[in-house]
């Protein structure tokens, strides 16, 4: 018999928000097809002055699918996409799905080492990449399974005359352009000249996306997200907002959050396309272009991370800017300071609501209500069709107010980790996703994150796993011991601090700058320690385990 549990949050849902959603048995690409049918002439994407309508986006996605199939991509094949927010990203992702492939999101900030690991782990034989990033791939090309590389440049989707001027600027800035004229390399624009493919009729349970996430071990793992998972999360977000009907086909979504992160992909891209919105694409989430885009395009939806809202609040002259078009902003990926939300709402008159999610859940699972009571410091309530509870170490449910691990169940929860059955079994038990986050629930069914995964650092919305940074530090010949922790940072939320014991023969010969340079060669910029301290010893437990907690406490007291 099915377990019947009290769901106190249902009494606090906004009027009209259902307890459950129906997830139709369709592939994700159907959402784009339907919007192209309903809103063919609406602008789907705006990119630095160039626009694509829904009809054009659908056509180009089908042509890209045809091009992939002509190159030999078969259903189930993984296609890695290493692009910033751009029309090419959206076309490549939906083109992959239309060809029956599985998208693999690749962070454009990855170093050759990180890129090699992900391509090998995913078994990606196809890579779609920006020409500026190509040298990083070429460094490790022979150590990856990639057989075909599709290359695009920013200029490919710029309007005249920007498309002619951009290469001149890129050369001046010494940015790589073009690609090797040899077998296995193909121009993105050539694929768009292919005959449109008939959409592949994927089963809802087929994989649509491998979303790589660090996990507490620091080893990057691919969360297996199905078409059903991603469709469900879009419909859950839509059901959560009682005002969504009035903006259907009229809203303007700011696409500043990177789409290679599942938060940006689901909330800004997939939900935006499902709703028939104009998505204003920004290749970099920088605050000046964000403010200008809000003014120019009358942005109604601005999903972001706390650091973006901090930057917005502190942008010079923001009170005098025309930003009142904003209606709803969902903040995720890191805790939202109460004062930041309050100030943002004063400036814009919009509603800034904090939510919660994780890659393994497509990602959104909780949110404060759009119209009802927002509780300070809370991640809000479970979305429709999401089950959530707080459990002790034995998995027993705890009463309101008690702290334990947050676990989740719902149609948006992943199938498991790619090629990692043991990790999957640890994380998924009887259909419940064990988040590793400590939380509590109040009597109204609002949840609060008490502590993040034990040692994970969240800096500017990015998850950084200490072990991965430590692994790189230990590769430096001068490093004897290393420990990495997150310490408070007023702008990024947390920042990376590394405490290092040098080998005797290197003391006085190696500087913090040397270590930082080494890290920059082996880690994406956001993972590089901002604080580096040399120590004679590191605090350890009786069994010799380095005590990160003590390092954090020492640093907080100023004894660091």
Structure description:
There is one protein chain. The chain is an alpha/beta fold and 560 residues long. The chain folds into two domains: 8-13 and 26-370 and 378-421, Rossmann fold; 457-556, GMP Synthetase, Chain A, domain 3 (2-Layer Sandwich). Helix content is 31%, strand content 23%. The protein has 17 helices and 26 strands. Strand 5 (126-130), helix 5 (134-140) and strand 6 (148-152) form a beta-alpha-beta unit. It is globular and about 65 Å long.
Can you give keywords for this protein?
alpha/beta, Rossmann fold, GMP Synthetase, Chain A, domain 3, 8-stranded mixed sheet
Write the layout of secondary structure elements.
Elements (H helix, E strand, L loop, with lengths): L28 H10 L4 E5 L2 E4 H18 L6 E5 L4 H12 L3 E4 L6 H11 L3 E5 L3 H7 L7 E5 L9 H11 L12 E3 H4 L15 E7 L7 E6 H14 L3 H4 L4 E4 L6 H13 L3 E4 L5 H11 L8 H8 L14 E4 L6 H11 L2 E7 L6 E4 L13 E2 L4 E5 L12 E6 L6 E2 L3 H7 E2 L2 E10 L5 E5 L5 E3 L2 E3 L1 H10 L3 E11 L3 E10 L9 H11 L8 E4 L13 H9 L4
Parallel strand pairs: 1-11, 3-4, 3-5, 4-8, 5-6, 6-7, 10-11, 12-13, 25-26
Antiparallel strand pairs: 1-2, 8-9, 9-18, 13-14, 14-15, 16-17, 17-20, 19-20, 20-21, 22-23, 24-25
Helix pairs in contact: 1-2, 2-3, 4-5, 8-10, 12-13
User: What is the tally of helical segments?
Assistant: 17
> How can the largest sheet be summarized?
8 strands, mixed
Head-to-tail CA distance between termini: 56 Å
Assess the beta-strand content as a share of residues. Answer: 15-25%
Structural class: alpha/beta
**Tally of strands:** 26
Oligomer: single chain
CATH topology heading of the largest domain:
Rossmann fold
Low-confidence stretches: none
* CATH homology superfamily name of the largest domain: ANL, N-terminal domain
CATH architecture of the largest domain: 3-Layer(aba) Sandwich
Strand order within the widest sheet?
7-6-5-3-4-8-9-18
Provide the number of structural domains.
Answer: 2
Helix content range of the residues, please? Answer: 25-40%
Top-tier CATH class of the largest domain: Alpha Beta
Radius of gyration: 23 Å
- What is the mean pLDDT? 92
Inertia-based shape = globular
